[in-house]
Write a structure and sequence with these properties.
Chain C: It is found in: Cell membrane. Chain C: Keywords: Cell membrane, Electron transport, Membrane, Oxidoreductase, Respiratory chain, Signal, Transmembrane, Transmembrane helix, Transport. Chain C: This is Cytochrome bo3 quinol oxidase subunit 2. The complex is a heterotrimer of chains A (about 700), B (about 210) and C (about 350). With about 700 residues, chain A is mainly α. Chain A contains 23 helices and 2 strands. Chain A has helices at about 5, 15-20, 25-50, 55-65, 70-100, 110-145, 150-175, 200-225, 240-270, 285-320, 325-340, 355-385, 390-415, 415-425, 425-455, 465-490, 505-535, 535-540, 575-585, 605-620, 625-640, 655-670, 690-695; strands at about 595-600, 650. The radius of gyration of chain A is 26 Å and the shape is globular. Chain B is an all-alpha fold and about 210 residues long. Chain B has a single domain, classed as Four Helix Bundle (Hemerythrin (Met), subunit A) (Up-down Bundle). In chain B, α2 packs antiparallel against α6, α2 (about 20-55) packs parallel to α7 (about 175-210) and α6 packs antiparallel against α7. Chain C has 9 helices and 13 strands. Chain C is of the alpha+beta class. Classes of the chains: A mainly alpha (about 700), B mainly alpha (about 210), C alpha+beta (about 350).
Chain lengths: ~700, ~210, ~350
């Protein structure tokens, strides 16, 4: 038999452990260790699933599910797993830079190159994207009073494609090398001439899978918001998180296509000898830069807008007050979404365009700062006249306002071509985008987890550990990244595994300290989740409204039933649930119930994901039979599915009624808690609205927080 | 509801079926959005072609040296007539629910579409063998093959889809999902016309004229 | 070049940054001492490789622009840092602020939060436009510039001096006070060329030519480097820019011409394999038109020449494609034409 016919270009030396055997060094040992962790992690999962007998529930209740809530949870699970890998990679890189002056250190240049490439690729495509997508998946349909997204199966397929991409990138830890071209993979360096081998191909196919998944997600969410809002939920009554979801979805629809085109062209260059971005023969890498950033800049807003939505929800809820300037925030969000397509050139001011072109794009970039600034001040004004509770989510918000505005300042600096000429490609730039993405997006997602966790699982997260985690994350971020601004101004370039300037050392040490704090914060966050699960009886809030919430998602039980709303709500204002609580009309039994149709679980999506994963792996290693077989199988599944007719099942009205009436009775019977008891075990999820309580009496200052246990 | 209201353009499943209009709205709207995203992809490919057909010639042939306008014109006619035939298939579906009629028109659409793809493959063959113009020859040709190839790939997948729909019409008949799928296929097919008109004008006519 | 001057340099850098901004805007009185304090607190840091200590008008302009923009941005940043703690304290649960749960809009405030950023962007945009035009890397800084052709290679830079007829590897010798025009291209992947103390960066791309104009008004050795990742040797891809007085420069050229080595097409071909250069190399002569041949080897249609340096017909490289040197084509191979 012909080895290459069966295994393509895989050789035994492709496995990461071979490097350790052939050429032992610390760098190789770390690579092998990471590979081992990936393998052992997978093995441990398999063993756990087998021992516990969880395979069947996993398949039946999760992987085959098309329920937007479960899809959302799985997205976030992917994000957290991938975050663990990418944050450790970041710490390794910092440690390397700190320990290396003039050639020291423990990582080889090549290993370092792979680390910054996987770190960036994973953080953007397999942490931030799944995190926001999962959150939008879970929350948005609940906020608009819908029973699911418009295309539940498509939603599950998006998830499985993203998961396939994530698996491909995890496989690269064990089999073969990853690209060293960074997350933006600029050719011609990533072309076949300068980067032979499988590394760039891993990047291309992992990113392509994620990109297709995101396009479908955007389409799905946009249609959902346009078509599935409950009666009375006009556009200008939608919660702001839903608005930002809409803007992000529109951006996904338009922005992912250029990325797909760019990755396909790069693939054609590499696999078939085309000349899109090659040196010579009419290829031109400047086209790649344009295509990539035509995606890449809107991508920044794809990530940040849902986080903005989270901040709007968090600040209004924990200030017990209406959002200030709702309309203003909506228009600002839309302005940002539209303008985000008009600034991509600022990623390459240094490519030699005329000064006029640079100036126009620089000014366009600054103009985005206007709606962003408006939003920041709207959030500040939301707190004015409120009663602010310093919950973990709110702490993240306060931290966000202060640090994000500094990131905005450096962003405006970078929008100036003259400044960009100096600090482009330096750690100043690295500090800037981490300054936007960490306090903005990542902490936004962390705040969202703190905020919506009780909705998803029916119990609150341990507040003390949440704050402890915050107090590691927030200063950790400042320490890890503010020194990088200074280092960048001193001329330290990005993607550099060692410098020879000893003056950098103290700053690198500070950054390392920050990285350690961030790791500690992550460890505490994991601890928080574990502890909360174990104490779920004390932390339970099944009645659905632990924070005195405002939008529709808080009006239903926690966790919500498969059908979300027993009867589709009728909305007459913004903040419908809050208004209902104030008017005393919340928790009323509906006049009648009807049968509800929910989609059946189906193996379609996981099968497509599985074959897509095999397809990508085959492409990376030139295993052509696998490519053909899995491609045919993907479409066979799709076609087979189109012949299925029995795709929905009916939940009888009696079942819905029994469940809902039980919930409503429990909610009405519950005494309800004031905000003083919010963080105590008295909080079962039935809130006495602050506005009602406030009129009748005074408030004790300082809410008690349960002790760390 | 008056007849004219029930027969509003666009998403008529049938003359007397207001319930399924509602069902149609979401999927068809979703498909329009998908088409929009697909058009963004084509826009990107057009833009790439626009740049590469000027700056990416290198030592390869120029557009005017490799394009056969006659073939492109015939291809245009084939594709437009196939859309025309699809229009009749949809009318048969809406007003007569006539399986035989729909299948015959679909067959005609498919044959014309397949002829289009066949001719395009022949064009490629001629370019590669007679003009030494494979996609590897220059950036311009890479962009040309990618743009027209993506379109041809869309047409081909449309043909596969059409075959499956023919089976479903024959086996299942005109259930609401089948009708909705046919309507989406029609939208898809017409969009490919629009894209092709762009290609014909922008790639072939401009290419030969310049 | 590790800086050893210590804290005083740090202070100079930061105060320089501020001083650059002071003439243009009224600096808040508290800002100066605050930042000076910060500067003293900073550990010793040398700016030998940084625009914080500019050695020419371009870098100085960039530094002062950095200061101007930073100061202007304080207009939106300071209010947040002042107002947020006050709001948090006053409106905390149990605080003294009046609870107004339904307050959601005020036209005055609305005008303020939209108006101030708009006005600020007008100011920032004006400053940006002016600085971008003045600091345009393509704008010549005076008559009779010294032209140096730069070829980015893995992992080194080749400098060709058409006027002097000498060439160097990883050493850029420049005369003080004379405008310099660097013309850049790449013989390999895209790179980004920078000499921070003199001017900002510009990409060097194969088959294309970009330009960087600069002027040095101080003598000394300044580090220059590539900032765009291009493989294993990236971290060490730096070179020395040696600025000397006009007379010294003449002397340097004369010495260079006495060197043994010359650079012809074959010698250039030997430079192409990726390698780090430990010691600068000086070539007494090079094949005229080499720069254009390198561009032409990637983009034959775009080979143009600046006056006097047209491609040499019959030269023995595959790059030697004859192409007419017309002004139109000269324009064609700048990236702008390809945008």
């Amino acid at each position: 038999m012909n080895w290459e016919l069966i295994f393509g270009q895989i050789k035994w030396t492709s496995f990461v452990f071979a490097g350790m055997i052939e050429n032992p060094s610390l760098s190789e040992a770390i690579a092998s260790g990471a590979g081992s962790i990936a393998v052992l992690g997978a093995l441990a999962t398999v063993i756990l699933l087998t021992v516990k007998g969880w395979w069947v529930p996993l398949w039946r209740d999760w992987l085959t599910s098309v329920d937007h809530k479960k899809v959302g949870i799985m997205y976030i699970a992917i994000a957290l797993v991938m975050f663990a890998r990418a944050v450790i990679e970041a710490a390794l890189m910092r440690a390397q830079q700190l320990s290396a002056t003039d050639g020291g250190g423990f990582l080889s240049a090549d290993h370092f190159g792979q680390l910054f490439s996987t770190h960036g690729t994973i953080m953007i495509f397999f942490v931030a994207m799944p995190f926001i997508t999962g959150l939008m998946n879970y929350v948005m349909p609940l906020q608009i009073g819908a029973r699911d997204v418009s295309f539940p199966l498509l939603n599950a397929i998006s998830l499985m494609l993203t998961m396939a991409g994530a698996i491909v990138i995890m496989v690269s830890l064990v089999v073969g090398q990853f690209s060293t071209g960074g997350w933006s993979a600029y050719p011609p360096f990533t072309g076949i001439e300068f980067s032979p081998g499988e590394g760039v191909d891993y990047w291309i196919w992992a990113v392509s899978l994620g990109s297709i998944g995101s396009t479908l997600t955007g389409l799905n969410f946009a249609v959902t918001i346009y078509k599935k809002r409950c009666p009375g939920m006009t556009l200008f009554r939608m919660p702001l998180f839903t608005w930002t979801t809409l803007c992000t979805s529109i951006l996904m629809i338009f922005a992912m296509a250029p990325l797909t085109a760019a990755t396909v062209m790069l693939a054609l260059d590499r696999y078939a000898g085309f000349h899109f971005f090659t040196n010579g023969d009419g290829g031109n890498m400047m086209n790649y830069a344009n295509l990539f950033w035509l995606f890449g800049h809107p991508e920044v807003y794809i990530l940040i807008l849902p986080a903005f939505g989270v901040w709007s929800e968090v600040v209004a809820t924990f200030s017990s007050k209406r959002i200030y300037g709702y309309t203003s925030l909506v228009y600002a969000t839309m302005c940002i979404a539209v303008l985000s397509f008009a600034v991509w050139l600022h990623h390459f001011f240094t490519m030699g365009q005329s000064a006029n072109v640079n100036a126009i794009f620089g000014i366009a970039t600054m103009i985005i700062g206007v709606p962003t600034g408006v939003k920041v001040y709207d959030w500040l004004l939301t707190m004015v006249g409120g009663r602010i509770r310093f919950s973990t989510a709110m702490l993240y918000h306060i931290n966000f306002l202060l640090t994000f505005i500094l990131g905005g300042m450096t962003g405006v600096l970078l929008a100036n071509p003259g400044v960009d000429f100096q600090v482009h490609n330096t750690l100043f730039l690295v500090a800037h985008f981490h300054n936007m993405i960490i306090p903005g997006v990542l902490f936004g997602m962390f705040a969202a987890v703190q905020f919506w966790f009780p909705k998803v699982f029916g119990f609150r997260l341990h507040e003390g550990l949440g704050r402890a985690s915050f107090w590691c994350f927030a200063p950790g971020f400042l320490l890890a990244f503010f020194p990088l601004y200074w280092l960048g101004m001193m001329g330290a370039t990005r993607r550099t595994y060692m410098w020879s300037n000893p003056d950098y050392l103290p700053w690198l040490a500070l950054a390392m300290l920050g990285a350690v704090l961030i790791l500690a914060g992550f460890a505490l966050m994991v601890t928080q989740i574990v502890v909360s699960v174990r104490q779920r009886a004390q932390l339970a809030a099944p009645l659905g409204d632990p924070w005195d919430g405002r939008a529709l998602e808080w009006s239903i039980p926690s966790p919500p039933p498969a059908w979300n709303f027993a009867v589709l709500p009728q909305v007459t204002s913004q903040d419908p649930f809050y208004e209902a609580k104030k008017a005393g009309t919340a928790y009323r039994s509906p006049a009648s119930y009807e049968d509800i149709e929910v989609p059946r679980n189906t193996a379609t999506a996981p099968l497509i994901g599985l074959f897509a994963c095999a397809w990508a792996f085959g492409l990376v290693w030139h295993i052509w039979w696998l490519v053909i077989v899995s491609f045919v199988l993907i479409w066979a599944v799709v076609i087979a599915r189109s012949f299925a007719t029995d795709t929905e099942e009916t939940v009888p009205a009696a079942t819905v009624k029994a469940a809902n009436e039980a919930f409503l009775a429990a909610a009405r019977a519950a005494p309800g808690v004031t905000r003083d008891q919010e963080m105590t075990s008295a909080n079962r999820g039935r809130a006495i609205p602050e506005a009602l309580e406030g009129r009748s009496g005074t408030i004790a200052s300082g809410a008690p927080v349960e002790a760390l246990s | 509801m008056s007849l004219s209201e029930r027969l509003h353009p666009g998403i008529n499943l049938a003359g007397t079926d207001p319930e399924s209009h509602e069902a149609a709205e979401e999927v068809l709207f979703g498909f329009w959005i998908f088409l929009m995203s697909d058009l963004v992809l084509f826009a990107v490919l057009f833009a790439t072609y626009a740049a590469m057909s000027v700056q990416g010639i290198a030592e390869g042939p120029r557009p005017a040296e490799v394009f056969d306008l006659t073939a492109a014109f015939v291809e245009t006619l084939l594709l437009l007539f196939s859309s025309f035939a699809f229009g009749f298939a949809m009318l048969e579906m809406k007003y007569r629910e006539n399986r035989r009629g729909v299948l015959l028109w679909l067959l005609l659409t498919g044959v014309l579409g397949a002829a289009f793809v066949g001719m395009e493959l022949h064009d490629y063959y001629v370019m590669i063998t007679q003009h030494a113009a494979p996609p590897q020859a220059s950036g311009f040709l890479s962009a040309y093959y990618l743009l027209t190839g993506t379109h041809a790939l869309h047409v081909s997948s449309g043909l596969v889809w059409m075959a499956i729909m023919a089976v479903q019409v024959a086996v299942v008949g005109f259930s609401t999902p089948v009708k909705l799928r046919l309507m989406r296929l029609a939208l898809f097919w017409h969009m490919l016309d629009v894209v092709w008109i762009g290609i014909f004008t922008f790639v072939y006519l401009f290419g030969v004229a310049s | 070049m590790p800086g050893s001057q210590g804290g005083s340099v740090t202070l100079r850098g930061i105060v320089g940054l501020l001083a650059a901004a002071v003439p243009k805007i009224a600096l808040p009185k508290i800002a100066l001492p605050a930042i000076a304090l910060l500067a003293i607190a900073l550990p010793g840091a040398g700016f030998a490789g940084s625009f914080l200590e500019p050695a020419g008008p371009i870098a100085a302009g960039q530094l002062s622009h950095f200061g101007v923009i930073s100061m202007l941005m304080l207009i939106v940043i300071v209010p947040m840092f002042v107002a947020l703690p006050i709001v948090l304290y006053r409106y905390r649960r149990g605080g003294k602020g009046t609870y107004r749960p339904d307050w959601e809009f005020n036209w005055g405030l609305e005008l303020l939060i939209w108006g101030v950023p708009v006005a600020l962007v007008v100011a920032l945009g004006t400053a940006l436009w002016r600085q971008t035009i003045v600091g345009d890397p393509y704008r010549a800084l005076g008559p009779d510039p010294l032209v140096v052709e730069v070829v980015a290679l893995d992992w080194k830079f080749l400098f060709l001096y058409p006027e002097q007829g000498v060439a160097t590897l990883d050493l850029l010798a420049l005369p003080e006070g004379r405008p310099i025009t660097l013309k850049l291209t790449s013989g390999t992947v895209m790179q980004s060329f920078i000499i921070p103390r003199l001017a900002g960066q510009i990409y060097a791309m194969a088959g294309m030519q970009t330009q960087l104009n600069l002027l040095a008004d101080e003598t000394g050795d300044f580090t220059g480097r590539n900032t765009q990742y291009n493989g294993l040797g990236f971290a060490t891809q730096s070179f020395t820019t040696r600025v000397m007085s006009a007379d010294d420069f003449e002397g340097w050229v004369a010495t260079a011409k006495t060197q043994q080595a010359g650079l012809d097409a074959a010698a250039y071909a030997r430079l192409l394999p990726p390698a780090v250069v430990n010691e600068p190399v000086i070539y007494a002569r090079f094949t005229p038109g080499l720069f254009d041949q390198i561009i032409a080897s990637f983009a034959p249609g775009m080979a143009g020449g600046h006056a006097g340096h047209g491609p040499q017909a019959g030269a023995d490289t595959p790059a030697a494609i004859t192409a007419p040197a017309t002004s139109h084509q000269q324009h064609d191979h700048t990236p702008e034409a390809a945008q």
